[in-house]
Amino acid sequence: MSTTENVAQAATQASQAVQHLPVEQLVQTPFVATFTIFVLAIFIGYHVVWNVTPALHTPLMAVTNALSSIIIVGAVLQTVHIGGEAITLTSVLGAVAVFLASVNIFGGFAVTSRMLEMFKKKKK
Questions:
Q1: Which ranges does the record mark as transmembrane (predicted)?
Q2: CB-based burial of residue 101 (10 Å sphere; 0-12 exposed, 13-18 middle, 19+ buried)?
Q3: 22, 56, 98, 106: least CB-packed within 10 angstroms?
């Protein structure tokens, strides 16, 4: 059996195993695993932002703006009424996420505008 077939068989078995789990077990992840992913995301983000060459700043900023827009969509979905309660911890965190992602997007546009001004001819 080839490696591709082994991978396909393993993926099929994994998907079948996941189908039999209740949804609650899929949603519940241990705090340590979630916190580890959060810390790794901070570490990788720090190194990506500070070690990128200046020529790649604009594409990187475009990507971060796209990711921020996705975050805003998800956060807006979390700010809706959940379980009949108007204000929950989830809705407050969603509102904070909308605010922070908006700051990132508008800051990205401001920096891009400033960079584009640097390439225009100056009036004498």
A1: 31-50, 62-80, 92-116
A2: buried
A3: 22
Determine whether 82 is exposed, middle or buried from the number of CB atoms within 10 Å of its CB (0-12, 13-18, 19+).
Answer: middle
Contact 82, 91 (CB under 8 A): yes
> What residue spans define the domains of the chain?
1-51, 53-123
| Tokens found for residue 87 | 């204000």
- What is the Cα–Cα distance from 1 to 6, expressed in whole angstroms? 7
Question: To which residue do tokens 């396909």 refer?
Answer: 8
For residue range 32-64, list pLDDT tens digits in order. 888 888 899 888 888 877 887 877 777 777 788
Residue carrying the six token digits 């891009």: 112
Per-position DSSP letters for 7-22, written without gaps between them: HHHHHHHHHHHHHTS-
Positive or negative, the Cα torsion across 58, 51, 49, 113? Answer: negative
